[in-house]
Every structure is written in structure tokens, then in C-alpha cells.
Amino acid sequence: MKKILFAAFITTCSLQTYACTSTAEAPPPPPDVTDIKPGSTTQQQAEEKLGEPNTIQNDGNKQRWMYSSQSNHILLVWDKTTKQLLEYTYSAKAAANDIDNDLFCKLNAGTSKTEDVLTLLGNPSEYRTTENNQLLMYRYKNTMLRLNFKDDLLLNMDISIKAKS
Question: What are phi and psi for residue 152, nearest 5 degrees?
Fold first, then answer.
């Protein structure tokens, strides 16, 4: 019976515009967000750090590995031909606390590095990176902090504050 259900699942997936696979296991907690780097992390290294993806999608020359749990989501986009990591995206549930303005004020465009921000603020709610560009987003109760980096150097930062209702 399990073999029939599995075959039906694979057939359904292969009829879509992309192939997919799925595992029932929840992914392990993500590594430090800077442990995975487009342009240098291999598929084998990613699998060693994260385990098997929950879902794999093939779309043209790209392959997407997706890891999902109740608390976070990870997306790795690979070039199918070169097996090179093109993009890494990590997102987690937003923090329930308020931003620490003293820590935020220690960040400086042009001098702060990605590792400095991670040391000060911890892992972000969302992290996206391509080979040269990084975006870190921190979501708090009424505040969102968006930090843009190029080659791990802070270019600019935006802070959005929601009006309290």
C-alpha cells in the first residue's frame, strides 16, 4: 500500500511543471546564517549542515531546495548545470520584543560588516544572499529593520515603525 501511495505521489509531482520530492522529517535548526554562501557552498556541504530538503523543485536550469518547519523556512537555489549555489534565503518567525535602539545605533553604513551585525543583533528574521549581496531583516513588535550589504559591508539601512493602534 505504501509503495502504491508513493508511486501516486511521484506521478502527481512529475505531471507538474517541475519535479518534486518530499520527506516527512522537519529540518534541523538552521546553521549560523553566514555558514551557507552562494558561489562557494556545495550541495554536499548544504546537505551535511541541513539534512535532506523537505522539497526539491526543478524549474528550467534551476533547482530549489526547500526546508520548512514551524519556526523557519530555508530556500537554496542551485544552478542545475554547474551545481553552484545561486541564492540562499532564510526566514523565521518575528521576535515578540522591541528593537534595542542602543544596539541599532552602533551600526554604521560603510564600516559595519555582516558578522558585526550578527554579533550585535543575533540571527535575523530573514536573510537573503546572492554571491555579492546580502539582505538582513529584523522584525520586532512594531519595527522592521532592513540592512543591505554588498560583499559583507553595510551599504544602507532602513527602519520602519508601525503606528500603534
Answer: 65, 15
User: From the centroid of its chain, how far is CA 11?
Assistant: 29
Q: Which residues pair with 86 in a beta bridge?
A: none
Could you tell me if 65 and 78 are in contact, meaning their C-beta atoms sit under 8 angstroms apart?
yes
Q: What's the distance, Cα to Cα, between the start and end of the chain in Å?
A: 54
Residues shown for the chain:
165
Bridge partners of 78? 63, 85
Q: State pTM to two decimals.
A: 0.66
Whether the pLDDT of residue 42 is over 60: the answer is yes
Fold of 94-165: Beta-lactamase Inhibitory Protein; Chain:B, domain 1 (3.30.1450)
17-28 tens-digit pLDDT: 334 443 434 444
